[in-house]
Amino acid sequence: MKVVFVILLALHGLIHSIGFVKAFELATIDQFQTSVTKPQGILWVLATLLFLVAAVLFILRQEYWPVVALIAVIVSQILIVLFWKDAKFGTAANIIVLVVATIAFASNMFEKRTNKEVSMLFGETGIDAKALIIAEDLHELPAVVQKWLHHSGVLGKPAIAALRLKQRGEMKTTGEGVWMPFTADQYISLTDPGFVWTTRVQMNKPLFLLGRDKLYKGESEMRISLLSLYNVVDEGPNAKIDSGAMQRFLGEMCWYPSFAASKFVSWEEVDATSARATLRLGDKEVSGLFVFSEEGKLLTFEADRYYGGTEDAKIEKWIITVDSYKEFGGYYIPNKCSATWKLETGDFTWLKLEITEVDYNNTLLYMNK
Q: What is the pTM of this model?
């Protein structure tokens, strides 16, 4: 599709040069019957150059190619209207370029906004690589939690202050819905707990969704847009969304296990293989149940969470199930898991996720070029 679009830009641009040739009488063009003045000929060749430059910038993946393409469409369509009898069929190509460039421009704006949010998230993050976690730092935790942290490999390493990770997987919006593949980047701060999660969900081609979920200073926002143009979800901050984001943050602690010993988390032993954790951010708190195997591997995380963020949203059981483990940066963490709602109508597993990359104590943005 990208190759076809480049060819369209180039050919559509080159066709505009006919107006220049006609204006300066460089060749006889019987198909273009309307006379063209030299100033108009300059505009025709300008459109040619703009489309060709847009094509080159598109190939080079320069973020400002949509701006050049949109200017080209404006110039082109003005000329087409002026020379409608000879040039009207160029409108179809302009419509295609307009749609693609508009979506690309909106996607770029989405990325710029989320990059600013990541910069804010990491703005006060401090990384101390010298202070290492030792066994004495864990002695007040329930025995099963200590066993989990030993198993995860936190001893002898600095506390995790920040991380970034990449994900892929499938999700669906209803129990009867189809699975939609997605990729995602997530940035997490642990010194001032919060995250920014961005995703691209592929629907039926060429439709896609761009989504962003955020927890910052104890408040959350969730936005999902179709083709980066139309918001289909725009919620928060409110008590229900904030609570859900904090519960997500707590459950995802399995990816940054040293946070279990932080001042933001308190623990209550339930039995030999489970413990309840409570996350406090300012005057807000949430809790959830962590269930482990006898050797200290996390099996599930359970929480009572609002199913949605609307006023009529009800609390339902939400469960993260660990499917497999993998080592990243010296930590042995879950790399595949699934998320399920336990509803009255039955279990609704809506997410299957795989971690593909983790960078600990790294606050740089991914370069998604």
A: 0.90
